[in-house]
Design brief:
With 199 residues, this protein is of the alpha+beta class. Helix content is 51%, strand content 19%. It has a domain of 104 residues.
């Protein structure tokens, strides 16, 4: 076998016939030149948009930092970033205290509403902590209650709920057992259990 090629069996089938006693073997060999790997294609791969987001977000933040710094100065720009981070930390602490107070005093609101609002506040706090003006703007938007409700409705509309039901066979089970309690005689019980779907 040449040094720059490799072989791999992709399919092997053996068909036998008892009458004729014939056996046929089909093999397909694929040879790939060394150093040239076939292109990989993953159906439904969603990693590309996420990769583009991680690449584009820092570039946008750098551009905004330069533009705003040119308008208000470097110190004022750094001050805004620090204030945003402090606001994010304050929001996270406030949400933690709120959650503890709700658990100690009992839930007086709907659990779904409380969890949704808490999730938005936590996400907003994290976005504010991240250095950058775009993330700060997104964090402030997530603190607006009408926008929170709109996002909850959009997520609920796109959610898919799958319900699985398991039915037993229509069997009848007969058996006897004893109920023993301390200080009392055992009680014999005979019971017949039938599937209500099969009268």
């Amino acid at each position: 076998m040449p040094a720059r090629t490799r072989s791999c069996i992709t399919a092997e089938s053996i068909v036998s016939s008892g009458k004729a006693g014939l056996v046929s073997i089909n093999r397909c060999l694929c040879r790939v030149r060394e150093g040239l790997s076939p292109p990989r294609h993953y159906p439904g791969d969603r990693s590309l948009p996420l990769l583009l987001l991680f690449v584009a977000l820092p570039l946008i933040e750098i551009a905004l930092f330069i533009a705003i710094g040119a308008q208000i100065g470097l110190l004022a720009t750094l001050g805004l970033i620090v204030l945003g981070a402090l606001a994010g930390v304050s929001i996270l602490r406030g949400q933690q205290e709120r959650a503890l107070a709700m658990m100690q005093g009992g839930l007086r609101v709907q659990p779904g509403t409380f969890l949704a609002q808490g999730a938005f506040r936590v996400l907003a706090g994290l976005l504010l902590i991240l250095p950058g003006f775009l993330t700060d703007a997104l964090g402030l938007l997530l603190l607006i209650p009408p926008l929170q409700r709109a996002l909850v409705r959009a997520l609920a509309a796109g959610a898919t709920v799958t319900t699985t039901r398991v039915y037993a066979d229509g069997d009848t089970i007969e058996g006897e057992f004893e109920v023993r309690e301390p200080g009392r005689d055992p009680v014999h019980v005979s019971r017949r259990i039938e599937d209500p779907r099969h009268p």
